[in-house]
Design brief:
The protein is mainly alpha-helical. It has 2 domains: 171 residues, no CATH class; 109 residues, no CATH class. 62% of the residues lie in helices and 3% in strands. The protein contains 10 helices and 2 strands, in the order H-H-H-H-E-E-H-H-H-H-H-H. The chain has a two-stranded antiparallel sheet. Helix 4 runs antiparallel to helix 5. It is flat and about 70 Å long. The relative contact order is 0.15. The mean pLDDT is 80.
Amino acid sequence: MFRDVTFGQYYPSDSFVHKMDARVKLLLNLVYLVGIFFVVSFVGFAWITLFLLVAILASRVPVRNVLKSVKGVLFLLFFTVILNIFFTKGDNLLVKWWIIEIYAEGLIFAGKMFLRLSYLVIGSSILTLTTTPVDLTHALESLLKPLTWIKVPVHDLALIMSLALSLIPSLINETDRIIRAQKARGADFDTGGLIKRAKAFVPILIPLLVSSFRRAEELAFAMNSRCYEGATHRTCMRVMKLSWRDFLGTSVVLVFFVAVFIVYGTQTTWGTAEQLGWLYF
């Protein structure tokens, strides 16, 4: 059930994206997350789709692995779509039954919202699939290093993020193991209504919490036995350095999203409604 969830898992490969500096990938992912909110049309999402396909090809990560990252948020996606369909009003009424009204504008807005949320998850999963938790920790610590001047525990925050990311695959595997063990004892998770299925998952929570606390305790003992003392006089085994891949990747991403901002962020200032109206469909 949970074995197909890939968010937070690292996919080893020797690709262009894997060899990029983790700090650059983190910043470019931030640009991507901000830039996608400027896209307001299906034509723009088509260009985002092309951009993601190029990124996936450059990372050599199977498309199936990337798409699996959306599986964990499917319920949220469909719930958001349903809310927008039924509560977004407009001028073109399509269906009216009792108190239910469905407008064409609601369907269009729901479709755009579905694509936006899906692409947000896919873009973030490409980052985690191509970057190890250790590299992400070092990147975050390096980028937030100026905050140490005001006594912010940057290293501790980066360590917490790294541990959280590294424990996601373990918790997913542990949940799947508990579910299979419960099924072997006659538990039923696949039949019945929504309430019955939710109640069936209650017996999973207690062993999962016990296992999580045990893993956290073992990790604390391991860190103490290795004399871990936080950020006190710590150095990095591998020093991160920028390469030509980082400059090339940064140039491509910035050019693409600057064009997105010009087309969609300033559409009210350069009068393209008649000549290039198809861009805003």
